[in-house]
Specification:
101 residues, mainly alpha, 4 helices
Length: 101
């Protein structure tokens, strides 16, 4: 089984941002509504903040972290212009076989 992708630098940065937003939410709720904080709110927010931060961290990871065995080609040429051509064309020969029948 493969290890889960993880980049500590990205994760801790995202976790700090998520934690600040969670605290800010609690402060705003307490100030502008009749919200009273409970123990379950704090435990649930802590657990869900960690999970949410990990998911955001996965979204922000470069593709090389997620699929280290695959090679990625740049979609742009040396001049920085987008290379047009094979977009939308199936790389799999099975699709071509199905269309011939």
């Amino acid at each position: 089984m493969r290890k889960l992708p993880f980049s500590a630098g990205i994760f801790w940065t995202v976790l700090v941002i998520v934690a600040v937003l969670a605290v800010l939410t609690f402060v705003l709720l307490a100030k502008f509504t009749e919200y009273e904080r409970t123990t379950t709110d704090m435990v649930g927010t802590t657990i869900s903040s960690i999970l949410f931060a990990y998911l955001l961290h996965l979204w922000l990871l470069p593709a090389e972290y997620l699929h280290p065995d695959e090679e990625y080609e740049d979609e742009y040429d040396e001049d920085g212009e987008y290379e047009e051509g094979d977009e939308g064309v199936a790389d799999n020969d099975d699709d071509a076989d199905r269309n011939e029948d």
